[in-house]
Amino acid sequence: MSMHPDHMYYAGIANEFGLFVCKRLPFGLKNASASFQRLISIVLAGLNDLQVACYIDDVIIAFHNFEHHFQRLELVFQRLAAANLKVEPSKCSFLQFEISILGHTMKDGQVLPDPKNLDSIQNTMPHKLKIRSDPF
């Protein structure tokens, strides 16, 4: 996502080697995630009814058969290409029957808590809270 030329210098980094400015919006800036979410929502607008969901940089395409899944996948890639957005293949997972996102696992039409989160909750020691009998 390109930054406006007037705003590049606000996100610059100055050190002994000089001033370096970002031409593209880096994550970590206060509104970077919200700006990118707005962009991806505009690019993929109208696809929610086609079982395509996006959350910041995660795009989930769900379907029950491969033919429809590939059609939706092609449609998403066309939209991304039209907006000059690129996908990093090493960060993509295709044809998954189970995914973990936002602390939940989706599998067989069910949304379950992520087992990693359950372990930390179940293995937490109970608090030993003593109730004080004396008032102030």
Automatic annotation (TrEMBL):
It comes from the Eukaryota. GO terms for biological process: DNA biosynthetic process. This is Retrovirus-related Pol polyprotein from transposon 17.6. Residues 17-105 form the Reverse transcriptase domain. Gene3D superfamilies: 3.30.70.270, HIV Type 1 Reverse Transcriptase, subunit A, domain 1. It holds the Pfam family RVT_1. SUPFAM superfamilies: DNA/RNA polymerases (SSF56672). The gene is pol_1170.
